[in-house]
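Internal tracking record. Fields below are filled automatically when a chain is submitted to the structure queue. Please do not edit lines marked as system-generated. If the sequence contains nonstandard residues, flag them in the REMARKS field before resubmitting.
Queue: standard
Priority: normal
Entity type: single polypeptide chain
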Amino acid sequence: MRDAYLARGHTLSDLGLQVPLAKSKLSELLRGLGHYPRWEIVSRLATLLGLPHSPLYRLWRQAALEAHKKREWVQRSTDNTTAVTTSPAAPPLDHRAFCELVQDDYLLYAQAFLVDDEACHNAVFDTFDILWLSWNDALASPDTRRHAWAVLRRTVMSRTPHIDGRPVFSQTAFDTVALTYLTDEEARARHLTETLALLRAMSWLPATQLDVITLRILWRMPIERVSELLGLAPALVRSNQRHAQHYLMSALYPPENEGTPS
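SYSTEM-GENERATED OUTPUT FOLLOWS
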């Protein structure tokens, strides 16, 4: 919303003529500060800024619940005068095609970090709504796929538990492809121990290396598909995987003369 405000060249005085908020409150809202806004205010701003209401309403509602607003408050904030603006609308055709193409794999990525199916679906479909709101920016970016992946990553990581700044993998990440083929209990226990150590080491990886390893190692995706999802050349995917694996090997199996890492 702030990007649309800056792009259109409006002033706070312009917005204040049609939105029942003081300029100071409008400034806070556009900077993500102050009290969580009612939908009535957000929908009026969306109209003035030319933003589609449907994805914005879903994002507003989800964020309100995450901000611990009661469902009654959410319902009251969507009064009869704005109900028509929340009715479904169709996103651009190329946006819909893109989302259909990546949805299943985006969900797999989210499952590595988020605790349940609902959280994964919310993160992925919030990503699609954010992309809808900024689709022109995505198309104008050097690579739409890379732009979209950055939105997905920010959305997922904002909802992922972190310890000392490092993401904590979901229990789902233990359900790797390799584990499904192990029937011996001792082998499964050994694999789980090794997986836990691997996930801890992976949490130290830089962002791109972490994403590549998550898709390549946990979900066994082909390099070509990882390249398509991340908007990286296959050679860059291989390079990131190689560097990540070198670090992981040194972290998991340090040379004896270097001692055990702390």
